[in-house]
Amino acid sequence: MGDFRTGDHPPSPTEVLQWFNTRAQNSLKPLSTDTLDFFRALQQYLKSEEEGKEEVTLQLLLNVSAQCGVYFPCPSSSPALHPHLPGSSVHSVHMVKDDSAVEIQEAWDPVRLRLRRFLMDRLSCRTSGPPGSPQLSTITILERVNCFKQLFFLYPECEVVTGYQGLKQKYVLSILHSSMSSSPGGESGFDRLTTGFCNVVQHVTQALTEELQVLSRVVEPEVVLGFLNVAYFGAITQEMTSQMEREFETAQRDNTALSGKTKKYSVMSRATVG
């Protein structure tokens, strides 16, 4: 197989595996040109309308890596971070001695970015229901674990965790803001905040349980704790502080206005009596 320029579809997994095995065994031929064609073919395929293209691409890349010992470019990472690849048989598509390394990275980045968005979207999908009902993940714990493993294949762990942390922080802030901004029972002031916080506890508890079940299987405990501190506890503290500051300001304005009205009424009363 000379190259990967096959139109809208990448070559079959069997063809790709055979090609990488052949090229890996022949160290005299550079990988750069054919690798560029391979990544560009994947780019075109991911732009197509074919259903399930992201899953197909991910499985293809994982098979090539596991069966052919090919290490795909991953900045801030190294083959040592891929224990499933035998050290003596790792063939990095980035191991070239000229500027083609930059071209390969530029061709690879759009592919892994598209796949990262797909996986992050899967991790972010939650059920919809009536207000106040818990929003559960639409995929199982094992499916979420697998999503993280695939993300770690594409990007360094720290980048994946940081990106996911940002998504979850926005989610926590959104449900807190939504719950505390509404008042189905007609409460106001600090009573509204208290009721809103109590209503959101079930959401947060369910989400925390899911996070612990997933993250404990893919990252170290200290990473899990750091993630929870920022995405959940920090987000809750931030939103509660903001809401309470606004209520204090409102209460102070109301007290000032009430005090002014009281003084004015007192002066008018004395003038009337006099």
TrEMBL record:
Protein origin, superkingdom: Eukaryota
InterPro entries: DUF4495 (IPR027993)
Name of the protein: KIAA0825
Organism for this UniProt entry: Poecilia reticulata (Guppy)
Native organism taxonomy: Eukaryota, Metazoa, Chordata, Craniata, Vertebrata
